[in-house]
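Progress against Task 2.4 (sequence-to-structure conversion) is shown through the following example record, which the project officer requested during the mid-term review.
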Amino acid sequence: MQSSDSGNLGRALCIITGASRGFGRTAAREISRLVKPGSALVLVARSGDDLRALQTELAESEAGRAGMVVQCVVADLGLMEGLESVIKSAKEVSSEDIDHVCLVNNAASLGDVSRYTRSFTNMAEVDSYLSLNVSSSLCLTANVLQAFPQRPGLRRTVVNISSLCALQPFSSWVLYCTGKAARDMMFKVLAEEEPDVRVLSYAPGPLDTDMHLVARSKTADPNVRKSLSDGFSQGQVLTCEASCAKLMKLLLEDKYTSGAHIDVYDI
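Structure tokens generated for the chain above:
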């Protein structure tokens, strides 16, 4: 474990996928407040308009005025050219003064939760889901680690935005649960292989996002759907800001076991 500067993430290059909305957008805002001048944020998403609005907001923030660079990459991470464009942009905004490279693998999709496992007979459909939700996070992480290799004075952190679904099956959520479980194991292996890289799988809890709205309305299993709806009506859904604050606490304290799965309710 390498200790971080108290209260900040250093002069950092932070790459955040799925940054245009929801948890990723909040993470970009929170991280921008915790990096030193001279840092750079690479924001990645498929929605260009939302990304550019966030870029403008961050450029006008205190960190932006202090010289933080904000780069937008509109890309489909399910395609190799999308991954390549992220690495290209990261190299462009990086500098020799960067002392922390942080990758937040947040991009994900829910998949079709209106059906049960027995209906997924189309291999192309499943492959497409896994390409975005599993393959892209593996290949992006590998590309980032190769582009920014270990050197004296450089910290490297990889965050996987996980879920309770990585650990617990939810009926009619076969794609989502499979993708999250695969990602958790992927990053456990990475932690074993790369002891100098700090690796964290963070489950942010049930969030008040568009994904949760879709899940409440589309989930096929009536018990899962009722549980989601009841949790929402009883105020058990978290804001992205509240959950992201817990993630920032973990990253700043830097005391977690590398490769660990940590739930928002564990903190």
